[in-house]
Design a protein that fits this description.
Structural class: mainly beta
Oligomer: single chain
Shape: rod-shaped
Helix content: under 10%
Largest sheet: 11 strands, antiparallel
Order of helices and strands: HEEEEEEEEEEEEEEEEEE
Number of domains: 2
Strand content: over 45%
Distance between the termini: 87 Å
Number of helices: 1
C-alpha cells in the first residue's frame, strides 16, 4: 500500500513539473587553419653557426576545436533535493568537457561534466552558469522548479578552450637546411625533413657538399648567397625560395 502511495505521489509530482533533459553532443565546432613559419627573410643577411639551420620552413594544417570549457576561478555548485542533490567543486585549472546541450527558455546552452556528479551543468552563451542541472534521460533529470541550483561565486564564467590537432593526411612542409661547417675546402650542409609532429623522416635526410669558395649555392627551390664561410659560422642570405 505504501509503495502504491509513493508511486501515485511521484506520478502527481512529475505530471505537474517538467524535467531538465540534456541532448548528447552530436558535433563540435571546429575549423581548419594553415600554419606557416620561416626562419629567414628573403634578401636579408643572416649569421648561422655550425649545427643550426640556415633555412627552416614549416607549413601545415591544423584542426582547431572548441570541445571544453574552463572557469575563470574556482567554484562550487550546490542545490537540489533527495537523489537530485548536488554539491560539487571545480578548480580554475580544470578543463570541463562539453558533453551536450539543453534548451533553457529558448536559448541553447552547452552542458559540461564536472567530476563528482552524475549530472551535467548548463552554461549559457554569455559564459555564466544557467542554474540548470540535467541528465540525459527522464530518470536522471532533476525536476524543474523543485530542484534549484546555485554557483558560488555567482560571477563565475566558463570560457571555451581551444584544442589543436595537426592533420597528417593533407600536404605539408617541415624541413630544415643545417650548416655542418667546412672541411677539405668543402662547405657542408645537411637537409632533413620531419613529420607535421616534428618526428624526423630518416628516408628524407641528405648530406650536401659545395665548394668552400662558392658565392651562390642552390638546393631545390632555394638560392642562397654566401657572404662568408668558416668552420664556426656562415654569413648568408636566401635570395629565392
Amino acid at each position: 500500500m505504501n509503495r502504491v502511495l509513493v508511486f501515485l505521489s511521484l506520478l502527481f509530482l512529475f505530471s505537474g513539473c517538467a524535467v531538465h533533459t540534456a541532448s548528447p553532443k552530436t558535433s563540435i565546432h571546429s575549423e581548419t587553419k594553415q600554419i606557416g613559419f620561416k626562419n629567414y627573410t628573403l634578401g636579408q643577411e643572416t649569421i648561422v653557426y655550425v649545427g643550426k639551420p640556415l633555412v627552416l620552413v614549416k607549413e601545415y594544417t591544423i584542426l582547431e576545436s572548441e570541445s571544453s570549457l574552463q572557469a575563470n576561478n574556482s567554484f562550487t555548485i550546490t542545490g537540489g533535493i533527495s537523489s537530485a542533490a548536488v554539491n560539487v567543486a571545480g578548480s580554475r585549472k580544470q578543463i570541463f568537457p562539453i558533453v551536450g546541450s539543453i534548451d533553457v527558455k529558448g536559448v541553447t546552452c552547452k552542458t559540461i561534466e564536472i567530476p563528482g556528479s552524475v549530472f551535467v551543468f548548463a552554461i549559457k552563451p554569455n559564459s555564466t552558469f544557467s542554474g540548470i542541472v540535467a541528465g540525459f534521460t527522464y530518470a536522471w533529470s532533476p525536476v524543474k522548479n523543485i530542484n534549484v541550483y546555485k554557483i558560488n561565486p555567482p560571477d563565475t564564467r566558463f570560457y571555451p578552450v581551444k584544442t589543436q590537432q595537426v592533420l597528417e593526411n593533407v600536404p605539408f612542409t617541415n624541413m630544415e637546411l643545417v650548416y655542418s661547417g667546412l672541411s677539405d675546402n668543402t662547405l657542408h650542409l645537411l637537409y632533413r625533413e620531419y613529420t607535421p609532429k616534428n618526428l624526423i623522416r630518416p628516408a628524407f635526410t641528405q648530406e650536401l657538399s659545395y665548394p668552400s669558395d662558392a658565392k651562390i649555392i642552390r638546393f631545390r627551390d632555394f638560392k642562397i648567397e654566401i657572404k662568408e664561410a668558416s668552420a664556426e659560422k656562415l654569413v648568408y642570405s636566401v635570395t629565392e625560395d
